[in-house]
């Protein structure tokens, strides 16, 4: 059973398009995250939701919009894709900080290539 | 502004020997540190963590050391095995939800 799953695994698209990446976790966690790993291998947090509420919103262009329909899902929608958006996007989940040492469980990643 | 740095992009170690991976940080407010291991085409997986109130945490072949005064932590793997070959990320947090990751060190364990 996959704990944190992402779809699609690969996404190739043209500049200017709008695309979505989906994430689901079956761990019963309350907190979910989106990270971006760029070509320099930096793994940077973009967003975090706790119980469907946005709690972290890093300096990310507003073309990126996360949506959490329930606490098991956190989707990432990207409008007007740009070349610089090409990266690997990782979803992760964890228990809330009060209950754990905040170990995060990561999905396998979605490699986005913008042409 | 890179608050967590892993200055060695790669490391090669002979099987059975000790692997030492290093991580430096600049933010003295960080109070929790983790190490993750990543294989190609997979997401990072949690390996070991340490709270700032400790200076050492051990789990089997893996030991993490924290030197707060030097703002330095290290991961020791002994004995190293070929299956340990992966990219290792350190991460640090000053709160409950936000983690700052280093750029990773690629470990290659030679058989």
Fold blueprint:
The complex is a heterodimer of chains A (115) and B (111).
Chain A: E1 4-7, E2 10-13, E3 19-25, E4 31-37, E5 43-50, E6 53-57, E7 64-70, E8 73-78, E9 87-94, E10 105-106, E11 110-114
Parallel strand pairs in A: 2-11
Antiparallel strand pairs in A: 1-3, 3-8, 4-5, 4-9, 5-6, 7-8, 9-10, 9-11
Chain B: E1 4-5, E2 10-14, E3 19-25, E4 32-38, E5 45-51, E6 56-59, E7 62-67, E8 72-77, E9 86-93, E10 99-101, E11 105-110
Parallel strand pairs in B: 2-11
Antiparallel strand pairs in B: 1-3, 3-8, 4-5, 4-9, 6-7, 7-8, 9-10, 9-11
Describe the structure.
The complex is a heterodimer of chains A (115) and B (111). Chain A contains no helices and eleven strands. Chain A is mostly beta strands. The termini of chain A are far apart. Chain B is mainly β and 111 residues long. In chain B, β6 (56-59) and β7 form a beta hairpin. Chain B is globular. The interface between A and B is medium-sized, with 28 and 23 residues.
- Profile the largest sheet of chain A: 7 strands, mixed
Mean pLDDT of chain A: 90
Portion of residues in helices of chain B? under 10%
Helix content of chain A: under 10%
Q: Number of helix segments of chain A? A: 0
The radius of gyration computed from the alpha-carbon positions of chain A, rounded to a whole number of angstroms, is 13 Å
What oligomeric state do the depicted chains represent?
Answer: heterodimer
Please report the total strand number of chain A as a whole number.
11
